[in-house]
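Below is our example:

___
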Amino acid sequence: MTLAEHATPAPRPGRRADAERNRAAIIEAAGAVFAECGGGVDVREIARRSGVGMGTLYRHFPTKDELLATVLERQFNAWLTDAYQRAVATEDPWQALAGFFEQLLGTQAGNRAVVESYASTGGPSASCIQRCYALIDQLRTRCVDAGVLRPGVTTEDLFLLSGSLSQAVLTTAESHPGQWRRLLRISLDGLSSRNAEPLPVRGMGADTPASTD
């Protein structure tokens, strides 16, 4: 046994369990506080709600940015898991697609920190974006197979639309809360297969329709 091993006794199992409970309490409290108050909230409020001291909070999360990033990552992943389960459980492909957008925007509208993250960092992490893109692709494929999606709509179109509507949630949160529901309805109507007019070619002007050849 080395001198270092003599000098540093292994932590008791009880201590590890307490540390994990404290970490979980901090993350849970932070999720609620960030959602209510946004990323600018004083971390003392998070410590108060979690029932831990400031020293304990900083041992687990040395900076507020680190805590916020952890909370947002967990929330996005939890939402994506729930969105996937709902989509699978919804038999109607169109309702599954519409429900995805409703859930996405409704979740964001009720969480100030999530809305702020789109303005400051562009939204979720790369891994969350990949999961989201894959889910949108599944929803689009189902709608195409059922003949309910407008011809020419791509997964990229739907992914970019989700980002645009997320920005709408951000820009109207204070002045016109709930305005996103109106914009979503307009968007969904435009995605319906009832609209057979060719879409503009990607990367070209809006007045350039796709070839029908």
Notes: The first helix runs from residue 3 to 7. The CA atoms of residues 58 and 64 lie 9 Å apart.
